[in-house]
Sequence to fold (472 residues):
Amino acid sequence: MDSRRSLDAPTENSMNETPKNRRFHRQTQRHILMALAALATLVAVFYLEEDWRGKRAWENCKRQIEAQGIVLDWDQFIPPSVPDDQNFFKAPKMQEWFVNPNAATNELTMLVTNTDKTATITDKTAAENFLAWSDRLQPGFDLMREALKRPYARMDGDYTKPYEIPTAFFVNIRGVALTLAQRAKCDLLLGQPDAALSELTLLNDSRHLMEHAPTGKPIALVDAMINVAVIGLYAETIGKGLQSHAWKEPQWEALQKQLEQINLPALVVRSFDSESAATSHTLETVSTAKLSEWFTPGWKMRWVFIPRGWIYQNMATAARLFHQQTEGCDPVNDLIQPQKVGDSTRELKAIARPYKFIAAVAVPNFTKAWQITAYNQTLVNEGQIACALERYHLAHGEYPATLGALAPQFIENLPHDLIGGQPLHYQRTEGGNFLLYSVGWNETDDGGIVAKDNSGNEDKTRGDWVWHYSTP
Fold:
């Protein structure tokens, strides 16, 4: 009884509280509730508007890009199933060696990583020793040659999730390429041009597994850039063979035909299309929490408050940047425009941060990728002409006064300069040699001068891109 009375009894504070104070407190509470309701309304309006704006921006971007023939539907990049007996990766050992293998137990990995394949070999004894060591790989090379007769290169896996698709094991691809290139150099040093041609033919053919022949679906940018690196090594090795004059007409003609089939810019463009569709599909279908783990680890809680519309804005930003990169390249006419390539980097810096924070991570360094692609394709183009020049020299005892003298007997179509589209620069030099070069990434004719960086290496952003293998 006493306890109930004590509970019902007015407290000292309530007894002291005047009606005016009570009205003030009630008004304050109402104001706070009204302010919270207004804030909630503003937040809701903000999210609704940002989501609407983002979805609208993405739909407009997608419509504009697809109107130009660019495919953004990831389903179109899923490779069709193929018969096992026509699939490179179903041939003996190929899946084990080249698709996500366990490097610790993979026999090919242990073989190709156990020696220095980049060392300069200048004497016959060292060449014989390297060939003897690498002969243990010959059975594997023979298996590769047989597997490459199959028309398709499709890895098993789930292609519905772009960033979980199976990938080639590039450590082994690089190791095989370096080993074959070194073997070819040793064969040339020992006067075995046919053996060197066989090694380089396998090196050239190996690129097809990264091109996912013949469908070309899907080609990731990393696939394309490994291909670019392999072809650069291939062209460089051909150059050193030409420089040594170890090859003769049949080998030069065969290598020239192989070089004529290489179009690295077209491959890179296809990879940008694949990457654009993969990025769009992933951002649209994957949860915000999962995206936060991939793009900004440790920021998961911040992503909780991100409007979905910002994700769509980033999709639009990424798609525009990918597409803008393809505008900087015209693989049909064999042109790359450095100025247009650089525009995407400048645009990325100008876009408001909420609309680019994912795109800035998802979109790679375009400029560097295109520089390497342009340089290595220029090496390929110059290699075609160099083979024709050597064939002309064999027939006439000297190099021609102009490149026009090579067509059509020694080369059907003269490659032009990938940068700018003008003819590659050529002249005969003293001592019976020649100078052949492209104007390079700076689009300026520097008279065949090669720029060097602080370490003494060639600076591919400045100076001319010169064929280095014309002097015996």
User: Anything to note?
Assistant: The longest helix spans residues 19-66. The radius of gyration is 31 Å.
